[in-house]
Amino acid sequence: MTFYPEKTIKKRHQVSFASASDGIMLSSAYRQSPAIISGLTYLRASLFFNIVSLNYDFDKVGLFSQIDLNNIGYIFKTKDSTLKARAYTISVPIGIKLGNVKKHGNYLMTGGGTDFPFNYKEKNYHSSRYNKQKFNEWFSDRNPTILPFVYIGCQFQNGISIKAQYYFTDFYNTTFNVNNITPSQPYSHEMINIAAVLLGYNIDYAKLNKKDPEDDF
């Protein structure tokens, strides 16, 4: 009787980079303030751009992280005025994928991350669009240093993705002072939580496969 050594099959996995995961962000915010009626703000559309994405995939499970450029904010209207506020941010999400991830099929994804605001802009319209006040600040203290979020979504085989994202901290720094000499805190009594739906498209441009010698047979 002849005994043959047991064949060991290694777990195959794949590392890949992706870019051009760009898309549209549709967002609204829940605004709470004692001075106004609390509720949802107007729907807002903006673009987001992916800088780089790193994926570590097995057959049915994958891990990923990426760096994005986001445009988040809200629009609030009353009878006589409109307020538009937004922040450009560097976004760093991480997450897990469940499904046909190795063959770039359909899969679910969930995780969290944080945005790092670096530019704040605000526009106030009074009575008409021609009567407005606006300002723009780099690395503004009006936003907190980080804006953490959670998300859940899915990606389809054709590269289209949809994701629901919620920022569970305030969009504003509530301790911000307009004037350090005569302190005025315009956001101390407000709470703005942003929720968004992101529609994107993902392109893999390089795959670094850790190839088993057995794959050649």
Give an account of the 3D structure.
It is a single chain. The protein has 217 residues and is an all-beta fold. It has a single domain (14-206), classed as Porin (Beta Barrel), CATH 2.40.160.20. Helix content is 0%, strand content 64%. The chain is built from no helices and 10 strands. The protein has strands at 14-32, 39-40, 44-57, 61-77, 81-99, 107-126, 128-138, 147-155, 160-167, 191-209. An 8-stranded antiparallel β-barrel has the order 1-3-4-5-6-8-9-10. A hairpin with a 1-residue loop joins β6 (107-126) and β7. The radius of gyration is 23 Å and the shape is elongated.
How would you summarize this macromolecular structure in one to three sentences?
This protein has a single domain, classed as Porin (Beta Barrel).
Mean pLDDT: 83
| CATH architectural arrangement | Beta Barrel
Rg (CA only)? 23 Å
> What's the CATH first level?
Mainly Beta
| CA-based shape | elongated
Number of helices: 0
Major sheet: 8 strands, antiparallel, barrel
List segments where confidence is low: pLDDT < 50 over at least 5 consecutive residues.
1-10, 206-210, 212-217
Q: Please name the CATH topology.
A: Porin
CA(first)-CA(last) distance: 27 Å
Strand content: over 45%
How many runs of DSSP E, i.e. beta strands? 10
- Strand and helix order: EEEEEEEEEE
Total number of domains: 1
